Amino acid sequence: MSIPLHSLRAGVIGTGFIGPVHIEALKRLGVQVTAICGSTKSARATADQWGIPEVYGDYDYRAMLASPNVDVIHITSPNKVHVEQSLAALKAGKHVVCEKPLGMTSKETAKIVKALAAPVAADVRGRKGASAVANPPPHVGGYPPVFAVNYMCRFFPAVLQMRALVQRGDLGQIMHVQGHFFQDWLQMPTDYNWRLLASEGGKLRAVGDIGTHWIDAVSFILGAKAEAAFAHLETFHKTRLRPAGEVQTFAKVDPATMVPYKVNTEDFGSVLLKFGKSEHGFVNGVHANASISQVAAGWKCDLYVGIYGTKGSVQWSLQQPNEILLGRRDEPNQILQRGTAGFSADVAGFTDYPGGHPEGFPDSHKMHYRAVYEHIASGRQTPVLFATAADGHHEVKLCEAILKSSTARKWVKV
Q1: Of 397, 363, 338, 305, the residue nearest 158 (C-alpha)
Q2: How far is Cα 407 from Cα 414, in angstroms, rounded to an integer?
Q3: Do residues 265 and 156 make contact, with C-beta atoms less than 8 angstroms apart?
Q4: For residue 326, what are the domain limits?
Q5: Residue 407 is assigned to a structural domain of this protein
Q6: Which helix (H) or strand (E) holds 148?
Q7: Looking at the structure, do residues 288 and 407 belong to the same domain, yes or no?
Q8: Does any domain span residue 372?
Q9: pLDDT tops 80 at residue 140
Q10: Taking residues 167-185, what's their average pLDDT?
Q11: CA neighbours within 13 Å on the CB side: how many for 295?
Q12: In total, how many domains does the chain have?
């Protein structure tokens, strides 16, 4: 049994930069956004902007979880409360889309994996009222709610295309992977965001915030997990300036009103990874290296990946999201463009516009949520291409290995 996506209703926790990104993508899919939660002022402003009927101020997410008009919870709050809010949502029988990272420590994120492995209580499966329309298909037979971690880079058509090339063996046996994720939004000592604070976002900042997107995208393309890491992390701005109060991401603040603080997270780093074996057989012990920086002048948001195999290679940059470069040694290289020959059949269902009509960051969120919501609506009959709680838990364990490696100056197993 399947239900239409527009019968599913979402509630969003968080009104910062990424919260409205979720809202816009959901509305483009026809999903109802029925509730918003945040500070009283920002939640009301967001509700007025997007026409959201239920407003939960003072960060009262538990009140929102009690609403019969919400089926799926989107968690876009600071990292330190992800696990707490995820567990509460699961206990309430809600499906969850949680921003990355899944949590601050693997000890915490393991609780989510454990909660999803537990049988669903009868009172959740048989709940009466408005939410019963959306919830029965996924809950039949005692299934727990659907849980996804927002690693949306999986859903750029180019990433899906590269994954297909690897899994078919078009590139041969994969030898190595290299790339970077560069940004410059924290280049100046006066640039500030809560992610700079280990108490809010975790001890790993640049690698934890954007480097994990690179790692997850590569893991998805290869069909294998990183099993060991060797890392070197650096903090260039050991003292920064911050506003007297919290501000929205990318907000401009007068430096004269800012106060100094010690920085306890990294600005940039180099990470070596060793991947395990894939089911399709073309990946086995692949070596990967990535450079991660949030202080790289001129790079606004560039995730670059190069996959190198015995038959050829493929390269992609997020800042040129609709093209991939297919490389051969003894043949001409090719530029494959989304929506044209060689870059269409493998990504059917994950691209909506003809060739030459660019799709980018907002579209990757839309495609991600489409995959999640179709999985819910179909009663779990569609493929699980999105990152699961187990994937998110592994990423946190990998981040801990990276931190340990940078301190110990040696390879650390995940």
Answers
A1: 338
A2: 15
A3: no
A4: 157-354+389-413
A5: yes
A6: strand 147-149
A7: yes
A8: no
A9: no
A10: 98
A11: 19
A12: 2
